[in-house]
Amino acid sequence: MPLNEGDPVVIWVDPKRIYLVKLIQNKVFSTDKGYIDLGKLIGLEYGSEILLSTGIKAYLLKPTPIDLYRGLKRLSQVLYPKDIGYIIYSSGVQPGSTIVEAGTGSGFLTLSLAYFLGNSTKIVTYDVREDMQDIAKRNASYLGLSDRIIFKLKDIREGIEEVNVDAIFLDMPDPWNAMETVRKALKPSGSLIIFVPTVNQIEKVIPSLSDFVDVHAEELIIREYQMKENAVRPRNIGVIHTGYIIRGRKRIKVS
Ligand SMILES: C[S@@+](CC[C@H](N)C(=O)[O-])C[C@H]1O[C@@H](n2cnc3c(N)ncnc32)[C@H](O)[C@@H]1O
What we know:
By secondary structure, this protein is α/β, with parallel strands linked by helices. It folds into 2 domains: 8-63, Vcp-like ATPase, Chain A, domain 2, CATH 3.10.330; 68-250, 3-Layer(aba) Sandwich (Rossmann fold), CATH 3.40.50.150. It contains 6 helices and 15 strands.
């Protein structure tokens, strides 16, 4: 299918030069390896080989969620795709679920939920900082996902307005202080997923999880390999540590 004006594309030059752009008439995009007139790419197809002004080859690729993720603005520490994928998988959320999250931060988890779960899902995200939610709103608008998310500028520790919630995700410094409101809002068997960057925080969370079963604390490690002939081995730079995922299911007592 030929590309139209406004379509997002990845311009892949080499593993260190991967750019996410929108095709716009009369707009030049520059890299340290040469420039390209974006208007001249309209009408080509995803997968096409192109030449930068210097004659260096590049490729037009259709953006995947990982490419979209790289193009978003960040004001906070953000969740990484490896953790987001596991959070979605292990929480049991699906299209139509009601989900509550705090804090919004730059919106990376929020937007991933909106992207994968569609517009039948109710995604409510709380944050105490307006500047954070402004960035997340900008990112949501960039991806065309704004209508799938409800932003609340509120402290989740002071109350969750939603009830019968399928899953609650907490990525904030003191999740243990939100547990009272979480317990009230989450439906029985609903998933609580907490993300914290330090082991000290895991230790503080544990005593607050007495109303949960199937509790786990996990870390996901991803190791990329360099693809050099005769030197295939783990790369020596990359994201070494993101954080820990603590998850559990709400239980109810039957007397
Ligand atoms: C690390 S960021 C979240 C990043 C987000 N998960 C992402 O992927 O972009 C933590 C956020 O929690 C917010 N926060 C801290 N305490 C909060 C609270 N009590 N209620 C709501 N948000 C809170 C902070 O303002 C900050 O934006």
